[in-house]
Design brief:
The structure holds 2 protein chains of 2 kinds. Chain A is mostly helical. Helices cover 78% and strands 0% of the residues of chain A. Chain A contains 11 helices and no strands. Classes of the chains: A mainly alpha, B alpha/beta.
Chain lengths: 278, 318
């Protein structure tokens, strides 16, 4: 098993291949189209309960899109990442038999697939939100925040997906692990937080919730969005507590926590893949 | 040159490789043959770093591949047993990727494509390739940069019969260039056609290695002689038996002598003396399949004898 560092240019070469492979398929244009349509639909539907059929302003549309991003981007990125290094088919042996280290393969796959996932979501959001902005106006910075969230979440969960794939001898096992991670981070974690808020009270609660937010990149992203949009009531107990404690300055710390999770997942992926026999 | 010393690997209770030692000289083709699970693929995978040996030394072109894996792999071309490619890449893109990773000149891609006859399909997505075309593409990838060592796991599998001859020509050219080739194959006629030496593996052990003639001779196998004596089948058999040979009747006037070459002249003389006319004669060389069977049977016999001795000793001890 190689622990050598290898030729530095191998990583961009491998990343380019992974990116092109991802964007040449149907999933990238489909992802972009889905996010564009979601942006348009949410904006159009936002005012429908009041009997008004037109786009609502970009800032409000962006706020509605945040929850969707928190659900869909981790799922998309985990699945994309998990298929990168799973299985033992003939491609991986050929790739691993080249004069490149396993770490370079992991990093290349991560960068390429992260770029593809973040790119597809960003193109879709940008297209949909541009139409909304042209139709109803609003603060264009809201789109910037959405794109930032998409890139952040895609990075963390592509890394987690790559690590899941690196640990799995079969593609089915990798996908199952990826779906388990998604369920844990996006669904079960919040249920656990609700449980904590029901059982813990007093001054210990807020630091606990804050630590919980830093421990889960989805919650970290949620709070970053909260800080920007000031939508305390829309983002649950963790978000409200963190917003009160941290204020806008805390967003950078939470982005840092998410970046640390990305690095941790990649480190785990490299270790697992370096030990794996193909 | 490829050097393997004391290579061992276990998977739980299963011994995949048991102290295997083997050398492939520059400009030599050595074939590893053995039954399924004999350890052939594990040996090749250990060489290219896909599996981790429990013990042993592996060197390619003077580079210790366990200590310096990237340098070792830069000196090897590898063809895995199961070949697959990202479906949307074209053949040329696949080879360009490997060429870039090996830091080879751009012209190497075209050369590799031409060497396996894929010029017409190189710019099509691999998804549309037949199994044989994928195998040829994988072979082209292994040939990139003319590495000093080639490690080929079942290179002839999936190839159509027409390309078998081309594969032989490619391997001979590689040998003439001075590369060391270590390959595995279940297609014994292909091995016979290209291998300079053969290594017989069983349960991770090296049963024997040498040229086909050496392996045959060490098991007492000699070429067969076949005589065609029209109309005199029974008479010919009686004459040859009386002359001390051990003939076998095949019907239609054909008789086979198992103890072939030395007895051939005597058999001719005996048949002529009896007034029988030999219309045709041919020598059937010992095939690799015969050698393989003979060595496996002998090993089976040794193993049975060893088991018998062990149980007898256990009885005595009790």
């Amino acid at each position: 098993m190689s622990v050598a560092i290898g030729w530095p240019r191998a990583v961009p070469i491998l990343a380019r291949r992974a990116f092109l492979e991802a964007v040449r398929g149907r999933s990238a244009p489909l992802t972009a189209a889905v996010f564009a349509l979601l942006a348009l639909a949410l904006s159009w539907a936002g005012l429908a309960p009041g009997g008004v059929l037109r786009f609502q302003a970009l800032s409000r549309t962006a706020l509605a899109l945040v929850s969707l991003l928190l659900y869909l981007v981790p799922l998309l990125a985990l699945v994309q990442g998990a298929t990168a290094l799973s299985g033992s088919g003939g491609w991986l042996p050929m790739l691993a038999a080249q004069p490149v280290s396993r770490a370079q393969i992991v990093l290349g796959e991560f960068l390429g697939r992260w770029a593809a996932a973040a790119g597809a979501v960003s193109v879709g959001l940008a297209a949909g939100c541009s139409v909304v902005w042209l139709g109803a106006g609003g603060d264009p910075a809201a789109l910037g925040l959405l794109l930032g969230l998409a890139v952040l979440l895609a990075g963390v969960f592509t890394a987690a997906g790559v690590a899941a794939g690196a640990a799995s001898p079969s593609r089915a096992a990798a996908l199952a692990l990826a779906l388990g991670l998604w369920f844990a981070a996006v669904v079960a974690y919040d249920l656990a937080i609700v449980g904590i808020t029901a059982t813990v009270s007093g001054p210990a609660l807020e630091p606990l919730l804050l630590a919980a937010a830093a421990a889960n990149p989805v919650d970290a992203a949620r709070i970053v969005a909260l800080g920007a949009f000031l939508g305390d009531t829309l983002f649950g107990a963790t978000g409200a507590a963190a917003h009160r404690l941290l204020g806008p300055a805390g967003s950078a710390a939470l982005v840092g926590a998410a970046a640390a999770w990305t690095a941790a997942a990649l480190t785990a992926g490299i270790r697992l893949f370096s030990r794996r026999e193909i | 040159m490829i050097r393997i010393r004391g290579l061992s690997r276990r998977y739980g209770a299963v011994v995949a490789l048991d102290g295997l030692s083997l050398e492939v000289a520059a400009g030599e083709i050595v074939a590893l043959i053995g039954s399924n699970g004999a350890g052939k693929s594990t040996c090749l995978k250990a060489l290219v770093g896909l599996v981790r040996p429990d013990a042993g030394e592996l060197a390619v072109d003077g580079v210790d591949v366990r200590r310096r894996p990237l340098e070792g792999r830069a000196r090897m071309g590898y063809l895995p047993q199961d070949v697959a490619f990202p479906a949307r890449m074209t053949g040329r893109q696949v080879l360009d990727l490997f060429r870039s990773l090996r830091r080879l000149a751009a012209g190497e891609t075209g050369r590799a494509i031409a060497s396996v006859g894929l010029q017409g399909a190189a710019d099509r997505p691999v998804a549309g390739y037949s199994g044989g075309m994928r195998q040829r593409l994988a072979l082209a990838a292994a040939l990139l940069g003319r590495p000093p060592a080639l490690v080929l796991d079942e290179p002839a599998i999936s190839l159509d019969p027409l390309f078998h001859a081309e594969l032989r020509a490619i391997l001979r050219e590689v040998r003439e260039r001075g590369s060391a080739v270590l390959l595995t194959s279940h297609l014994l006629p292909e091995v016979e056609a290209v291998a300079d030496r053969i290594a017989l593996l069983r349960e991770g052990r090296l049963l024997a290695h040498g040229t086909l003639a050496e392996l045959a001779a060490s098991r007492g196998l000699r070429p067969l002689a076949r005589f065609h004596v029209p109309g005199g089948n029974g008479a010919a058999r009686r004459v040859l038996t009386a002359a001390g040979a051990h003939p076998t009747e095949e019907g239609d006037g054909w008789i086979t002598l198992a103890d072939a070459a030395p007895a051939r002249a005597e058999a001719f003389r005996a048949l002529e003396a009896a007034g029988l006319r030999v219309q045709a004669f041919e020598t059937v060389p010992v095939g690799l399949a015969d050698v393989f069977r003979a060595w496996y049977d002998a090993d089976e016999g040794d193993a049975a004898a060893s088991r018998g001795a062990r149980s007898a000793r256990a009885e005595v001890v009790r």
